[in-house]
Write a structure and sequence with these properties.
This protein has 254 residues and is α/β, with parallel strands linked by helices. The protein has one domain: Metallo-beta-lactamase, Chain A (4-Layer Sandwich). It is built from eight helices and 14 strands. The strands form two sheets. Strands 6-5-4-3-2-1-14 form a seven-stranded mixed β-sheet. The protein has a seven-stranded mixed β-sheet with strand order 7-8-9-10-11-12-13. It starts with a strand and ends with a strand. The structure holds zinc ion (2 copies). One zinc ion binds next to helix 2. The site of one zinc ion (ZN) has 6 residues, from helix 2.
Length: 254
């Protein structure tokens, strides 16, 4: 499995792009940085997007990609979203006002985009990948993913505050090669992190204590760019073992 970090930030600025992890050039986990990083040819090779939740920084390139891909794909780009997230995409983006309904364009028979709802807790297939969506703690319906290509398995927390089921699922996984976890706000903004369903370095440390790790690394993402220096300072003080912050452009082979 080849994992490319197209974006791993909680906001967009020069040198900061929002959450988007590309697996083997074929599947994207969240769509925060597809159109700014991939060429049209590379974008046309992405068959599946799996979305953790409906927040703008995670879905923003779904509408932009749909528009770009008309005439460049033989089959629809499949967007896998929880039922609530799928409804938000239909009602709030592809509603003919904010953006055209690309699930019916260029034709109803062969649209450029297909939205496929999934149920949190129920495994589904996205291309050749098995995906387990596990509910996490966030103001909208939101999931973390356990994704496997049959050989390597990775975990991605999605946006979440302190949670339980996802860590249980991670602990049940034998073949995990990497765990990607959000960390958004510095300790000084603990209250904001709590009400918005995010982690600080302090709550991250408490969450990781729930995980029985067997040597695999933890990669952090979704840092709010305005607080990045403070976040790094807070994290350093905790001296967590085998935990590091992702950088845009990172590439891994598992
Ligand atoms: Zn969010
Ligand atoms: Zn987010």
């Amino acid at each position: 499995m080849r994992l490319r970090i197209l974006g791993c930030s909680g906001g967009e600025l020069p040198r900061h792009r929002t959450t988007c992890f590309l697996v083997d050039g074929r599947l994207a986990i969240d769509a925060g940085a597809l159109t700014a990083t991939l060429t049209l040819r590379q974008l046309a090779r992405v068959d599946d997007i799996i979305l953790t939740h409906s927040h703008f920084d995670h879905v923003k390139d779904v509408p932009l990609a749909a528009d770009l891909l008309i005439g460049h794909r033989k089959t629809p780009l499949r967007v896998h979203a929880s039922s609530e997230c799928a409804a938000t995409l239909r009602d709030s983006i592809f509603n003919g006002r904010l953006w055209p309904d690309f699930t019916r364009l260029p034709t109803r028979q062969n649209p450029v985009l297909q939205i496929r709802p999934f149920t949190p807790g129920k495994r589904f297939k996205a291309g050749r990948y098995a995906v387990d969506p596990v509910a996490v703690h966030h103001p909208v319906e939101s999931v973390g993913f356990v994704l496997s290509d049959g050989k390597a398995t990775i975990g991605v927390s999605g946006d979440t505050g302190p949670t339980t089921a996802f860590w249980k699922r991670i602990n049940a996984e034998r073949d995990l090669v990497a765990l990607l976890v959000e960390m958004s706000f510095p300790n000084a903004l603990q209250r904001l992190a709590d009400v918005s369903g995010h982690l600080t370095p302090n709550t991250l440390a408490r969450e990781l204590a729930k995980v029985n790790r067997n040597g695999y690394p933890v990669y952090l993402y979704h840092l709010k760019p305005a607080y990045e220096a403070e976040l790094r300072r807070d994290l350093r003080k905790l001296a967590l073992d085998n935990v590091r912050i992702l950088a845009m452009g990172d590439e891994f082979h598992f």
